[in-house]
């Protein structure tokens, strides 16, 4: 038998509508985890799919004027398309209307019926169609569905049905949960499950009267199998149960099954392991119930019209930033995994998305690569040098980050993994500031310059491999610019922890910003400034004057008066355009401290975004740049 395949599942989604950011979340996270585990050299099976036999799917079909089958055949590919557009690389996509799955469900039903775990009775009770869940009278809240995410009206059902003896598994489930501390995660949701089970488990109706949609009960086609009994079994359909024993042994038990908190307690942590126990199959190794996203503080709902499609969000972000669409998609993937710990509820707001785009992606990550590549072009003809020494503080940080990220993935703490990687990005940027390669170049210290640029490139290489599971396409673009010929997909996780793998002699590409900053346009309603001879102190205070250090300087092509300067404000970098090219050579400005009007409205000058204005004295038309008369840290405020 081969090595156990790392098996990851998402819930299979109802195909009554196309996916929104909520469904996309589970799938994106699963994809990142799958990609990371592939880097670690594991055989991975990452499965998702569609849950097609729900009553609400049949209702949606009716509304659309289609038969249920026509409807699901149309929507299932729409799900696949959305996943593709979000860079989801699943290994299997299961549809519950597929013959392989129908065979599994009927077989499982027969086994449980034969052994008496499924028995016939009359069902009388309430049913919530949106949740596809049976409820006892006592569970209802104000006569409505008790699920806090739903609270809609329920229907009275009275039918002859089959029941699954869930009550018989109460103690077995509690024992299993206790003996397997990692089975239910996060910990606080485990406690919810334990108290739910301890309240007493009732047997569950697992069939409904056949109204033309669902998997027929073997031998009794007037009944169909309850959609949850059907849907949960998808996880073993994919693994090859009942069809390929060898495959099943390599894949099952699932290593991690991810889902939202809405379907964690009652279905995945209770009914599902009990069904498996009844079938004599081991429960999954771990189930994780993550939190729910709201949008701008509101619950996501179709009726509110805020069930935003992730693709539309990405298109918007691309339009506002000028980033490529694939990069914008990755930025959304990044945002949802970075913004909140996996497990707790979180809010999706456009302002927060833009904030992270500008600070984490444009400023931190983008700058690290951009600045390094610009300096590689300026000082080293784009050829990766042989370093004169090992930058041991960076090497050590890489090694500890590598351990931390691995551990974070093993505990499904995706935001912690990203935080650790960003510590490394930050260290790379600070190292550049501290080592000031522009000065080393000016002073002719070529050995030190080689070490500094090699080391920053090495950080960029390692960071690129580490972020590839989160942002696969943006990472590909970074990789292309780094000029490494071996494909990114071939990079191993071990290689991401090994300092010094970047080969001297590699030719890097020219820097091209991958994450262009989103610039807020000035508000139209701003009144025009009133001209006055004097200004008040409060008006003066509106000017944000800061000391900035020039890091890079170059001529703006085809503009003989303009220089493009990259300046540092300590914790931030800007690009500005200054009309001083007639009097200053670009190189003499590098390392100089200047006075910057930092809150001037950004403007595009000859195609270059200028984010501030340098101050200079005007001596009969000649500009003389103002500098502080002793050394002041970059970023200092001027009052
Ligand atoms: O429940 N925030 O399918 P479904 C975060 N077919 N995640 C969210 C979310 C939100 N606002 N809204 C939805 C079903 N999700 C069944 C599953 S599995 C055998 C059958 C995610 O289309 C979350 O993972 O209603 C939730 O569990 C899933 O979408 C529900 O998708």
Kindly list the characteristics that best describe this protein.
6-stranded parallel beta sheet; OB fold (Dihydrolipoamide Acetyltransferase, E2P); single chain; binds ligand ME8; 639 residues; alpha+beta; 6-stranded antiparallel beta sheet; Isoleucyl-tRNA Synthetase, Domain 1; elongated
Structure description:
This protein is α+β, with helices and mostly antiparallel strands and 639 residues long. The protein has 20 helices and 26 strands. Among the domains are: 347-497, Isoleucyl-tRNA Synthetase, Domain 1 (Orthogonal Bundle), CATH 1.10.730; 537-625, Beta Barrel (OB fold (Dihydrolipoamide Acetyltransferase, E2P)), CATH 2.40.50.140. A six-stranded parallel sheet has the order 3-2-1-12-13-7, with helices on both faces. Strands 17, 18, 19, 20, 23 and 26 form a six-stranded antiparallel sheet that branches. Strands 5-4-6-8 form a four-stranded antiparallel sheet. It is elongated and about 95 Å long. The mean pLDDT is 93. The chain binds ligand ME8. The site of ligand ME8 has 19 residues, from strand 1, helix 1, helix 7 and strand 12. Residues 11-14, 22-23, 25-26, 51, 231-232, 234, 259-260, 262-263, 292-293, 300 line the site of ligand ME8.
């Amino acid at each position: 038998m081969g090595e156990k395949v790392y098996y990851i599942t998402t819930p299979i989604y109802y195909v009554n509508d196309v996916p929104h950011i909520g469904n996309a979340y589970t799938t994106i996270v699963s994809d990142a985890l799958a990609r990371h585990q592939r880097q670690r050299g594991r055989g991975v099976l990452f499965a998702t799919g569609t849950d097609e036999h729900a009553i609400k799917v049949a209702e949606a079909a009716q509304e659309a004027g289609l038969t249920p089958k026509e409807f699901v055949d149309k929507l299932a590919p729409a799900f696949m398309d959305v996943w593709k557009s979000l860079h989801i690389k699943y290994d299997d996509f299961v549809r519950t209307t597929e013959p392989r799955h129908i065979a599994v469900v009927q077989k499982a039903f027969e086994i449980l019926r034969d052994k008496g775990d499924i028995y016939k009775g009359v069902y009388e009770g309430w049913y919530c169609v949106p949740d596809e869940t049976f409820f006892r009278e006592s569970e209802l809240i104000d006569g409505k569905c008790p699920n806090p995410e739903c609270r809609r009206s329920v229907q009275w059902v009275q039918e002859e049905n089959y029941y699954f003896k869930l009550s018989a598994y109460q103690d077995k489930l509690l024992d299993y949960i206790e003996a397997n501390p990692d089975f239910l995660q996060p910990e606080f949701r485990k406690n919810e499950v334990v108290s739910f089970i301890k309240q007493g488990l009732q047997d569950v109706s697992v069939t409904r009267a056949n109204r033309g949609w669902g998997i027929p009960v073997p031998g009794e086609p007037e009944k169909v199998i309850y959609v949850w009994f059907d849907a949960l079994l998808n996880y073993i359909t994919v693994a090859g149960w009942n069809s390929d024993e060898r495959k099943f042994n390599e894949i099952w038990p699932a290593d991690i099954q991810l889902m939202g908190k809405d379907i964690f307690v009652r279905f995945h942590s209770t009914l599902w392991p009990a069904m498996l126990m009844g079938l004599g199959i081991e429960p999954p190794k771990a189930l994780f119930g993550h939190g729910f996203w709201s949008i701008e503080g509101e619950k996501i709902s179709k009726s509110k019209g805020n069930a935003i499609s992730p693709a539309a969000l990405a298109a918007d972000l691309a339009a506002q930033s000028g980033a490529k669409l694939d990069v914008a998609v990755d930025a959304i993937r990044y945002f949802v995994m970075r913004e909140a710990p996996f497990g707790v509820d979180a809010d999706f707001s456009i302002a927060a998305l833009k904030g992270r785009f500008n600070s984490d992606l444009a400023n931190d990550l983008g700058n690290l690569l951009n600045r390094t590549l610009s300096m590689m072009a300026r000082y080293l003809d784009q050829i990766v040098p042989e370093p004169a020494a090992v930058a041991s503080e960076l090497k050590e940080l890489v090694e500890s980050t590598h351990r931390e990220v691995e551990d974070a993935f093993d505990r499904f703490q995706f935001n912690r993994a990203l935080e650790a990687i960003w510590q490394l990005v930050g260290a790379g940027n600070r190292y550049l500031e501290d080592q000031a390669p522009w000065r080393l170049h000016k002073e002719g210290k070529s050995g030190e310059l080689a070490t500094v640029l090699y080391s920053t490139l090495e950080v960029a290489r390692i960071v690129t491999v580490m972020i590839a599971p989160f942002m696969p396409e943006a990472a590909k673009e970074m990789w292309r610019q780094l000029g490494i010929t071996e494909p990114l997909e071939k990079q191993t996780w071990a290689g991401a922890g090994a300092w010094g793998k970047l080969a001297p002699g590699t030719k890097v590409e020219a820097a091209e910003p991958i994450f262009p900053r989103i610039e807020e346009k000035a508000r139209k309603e701003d009144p025009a400034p009133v001209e006055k001879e004097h200004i008040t102190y409060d008006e003066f205070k509106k000017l944000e004057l800061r000391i900035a250090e020039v890091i890079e300087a170059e001529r703006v092509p085809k503009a003989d008066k303009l220089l493009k300067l990259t300046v540092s404000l300590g914790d931030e970098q800007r690009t500005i355009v200054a009309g001083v090219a007639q009097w200053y050579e670009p190189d003499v400005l590098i390392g100089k401290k200047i006075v910057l009007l930092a809150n001037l409205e950004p403007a595009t000058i000859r195609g270059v975004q200028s984010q501030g204005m340098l101050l200079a004295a005007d001596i009969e038309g000649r500009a003389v740049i103002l500098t502080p008369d002793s050394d002041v840290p970059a970023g200092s405020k001027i009052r």
